[in-house]
Amino acid sequence: MKLSKLGQFWWLALLSCLVVLSLGGNAQAASDQSLAQVKAKGTLVMGTSPNYPPYEFQINEHGKSKIVGMDVEIGKQIAKDLGVKLVVKKLSFDSLLPALTTGKVDMILSGMSPTPARRKNVDFTNIYYTEGEAILINRTDQAKYQTKKSLAGQKVAAETGTLQYNLIKQQMPASKLTGMSSAANLILALKTHKVAAVVKGTASATAYAKNDPSLMAIDGHFKTSSAQAGNAIALKKGSTSLKVAINQSLTKIKAHHWIQKRYLKTAGKYLKVNTADTSMWHYRDYFAKGLEYTLLIAIVGIIGGSLLGMLLAMLRFNAVRPLRWLATGYVEFVRGTPLMVQIMFVYFGIGMIVDVSALVAGMIAIVLNSGAYLSEIIRGGIQAVDAGQTEAAESLGLSKGATMRYVVLPQTLKIIWPSLGNQFINLIKDTSMVSIIGVTELIYQLGIVQADTYRGVAPIGIAMVIYFVICWVLTRLLRYYENRLNRGHARQLN
């Protein structure tokens, strides 16, 4: 068939556009170094929240903690195909996307659904596993709650930031939506009747119901769009080459049906390991490790915070106005923002410039926060010292520095000692905040034990006892030194 000159013109124009687009796409792919960077460093860092069996969870194997599950097996295969080593990084689910966008992890493999909202910030691979959504209820309520409509007016919970959370909001408007950041807390709330039901992926809901006879799973009959259906791997925006390589691995995994034939079966075996012995003594190493990190962070926070607090307090009395303004501004800013936000800023924000581990970031944030509060305690103590003491020291010829060191600060310490003690005890409890960035302190380990054993209350009781013992011992030490200070002051008066 012959074309007119006008037709030929439009065909040439169309071909030109296709060539330009192709060249542009090739140029973009060529500029993308995501796959090359992974191969160059020899590791593929997988971000995950290991409290979502059978996708990812932890087991106590020969006294050592190990992250296992279907997603971990998929990650191993991808790393093997890329010729690199898989490194699994633990984070709370809410922290996974910030970790990806700031380069802390190379990919998120954590049962994540590629919702439109998430696609705006990250890229997703092809769907690797598709399942429905189930509703977990207490077995004693099975006569009352048989469909999602029967839960009208009742509290229904899901993890914040998940597809299930949005499905409740959209398709169960008559129910009272409750969001929580931990899968373990969801199950605990359900078993204690704080909520009537929990919405989870079918595989996870089935795992919980199978391992806990007090729970049962019912079909949610939720409607999901093709863009939301199933789970995919999240990658940083523009990671085209890495995305192509991972999709090739996923295609091979799906072609061989390894998820059904291997990975889910492997996850099931690991689940039996956890439920074989759910005693708290069996998980003593978890609590011991959590205690170790809690004490380490607390000690660093107390020492570092005290030094920073003293520096800030001295700057508040400095004759140079800019230094006073700087110290005042810092104290007001830190005291006016939540500690959790500060921890996330240090880890994800500053971490974009200087790569620091979660533990180091947590300790830095605790020091910066406690320093601001301690500076106000120290400043108040200095102002409480009788002005006559300073005048007497100056009349004896002591310099300002010597007066502060030998006269004011010793009396300040006696005045502020009870307040310092309260701040130190609060600091020990504040260490629990660093669990949000995956530091394995006591609260983080508590959540892992809950998820692994399907027991909600017992791990909380153990953690409470440990915190109480720490604070009780610290209180006794503080009182001992307070009595010594008082006796020393009494001898000086006599």
UniProtKB/TrEMBL annotation:
It comes from the Bacteria. The chain crosses the membrane at residues 293-315, 345-368, 456-478. This is ABC transporter substrate-binding protein/permease. Residues 1-29 form the signal peptide. Residues 291-475 form the ABC transmembrane type-1 domain. PANTHER family: GLUTAMINE TRANSPORT SYSTEM PERMEASE PROTEIN GLNP, MEMBRANE COMPONENT OF AMINO ACID ABC TRANSPORTER. Pfam families: BPD_transp_1, SBP_bac_3. Keywords: Amino-acid transport, Cell membrane, Membrane, Signal, Transmembrane, Transmembrane helix, Transport. It comes from Lactiplantibacillus dongliensis. It is a multi-pass membrane protein. Belongs to the binding-protein-dependent transport system permease family. HisMQ subfamily. It is found in: Cell membrane.
